[in-house]
Amino acid sequence: MKKPMNRRNLLKGSLGLAAGIAASRVAHGQMFQGPKCALGPTPPQTEGPFYPVNDQLDKDIDLVYVDGAPDMARGEIVYVYGLVTDSQCQPLPGALVEIWQACVTGRYNHPSDPNTSAALDPHFQYWGKTMTDEQGRYLFRTIIPGAYPAAPGWDRPPHIHFKVQKRAYHELTTQMYFRGHALNAADRILQSMSAIDQEKVVVDFAPMNDVEFYGPYKGGRFDITLAPVL
Predict the structure, then answer these.
(1) One of 79, 161, 169, 214 is an active-site residue; which one?
(2) pLDDT tens digit string along 10-53?
(3) Hey, what CATH class is 14-225 in?
(4) I need a labelling partner for 63 at 20 to 30 A (CA). Which of 14, 15, 124, 150 fits?
């Protein structure tokens, strides 16, 4: 059985998201206070070559523990959370949110990843999915992924891939970055975007205030705006 994400075990699995958020003082305090709905939809970015191709039994919101594994994933644990809204800042409940990423060594659990010199982490989940709750909220617990070589002279900075789907809205595939990382300024994908669009996908991470509930970890809010199908 997967180890609990906290001592009250309220955020274990996708079905526990709403209950966990409702029980958290942070959720009603600072996590989701104030809309951050940006003007215009969240900019799409390339899916990349490493979207999961092999199904896995454990693909819930906690990527730090894998069911049946004896240990937790290596790396700095962070929470990634946010709201999925329409262009009028109205929440979109029941949106499917998927994330996938490299582990701390910069390796994807994907047969096409050429970065074979980096070790896989058998205790990292690599891929997670959830549905937004009735207020359009989602949350994942994961680790900051490692950088990895993408081409000669180009190392990709830590980033997390997102795919978001909701009926009557255009499917969005994008990437989220960690503000302040030195490789952001030279990343060819991030720097191909306008300064305004970069601000929509580069996220600040800060210590969570409710240590009892979340543990001594950082969290970053990544709100996502979907465009309607007209």
Answers:
(1) 161
(2) 344 433 444 444 444 444 446 777 656 766 899 999 999 999 99
(3) mainly beta
(4) 150
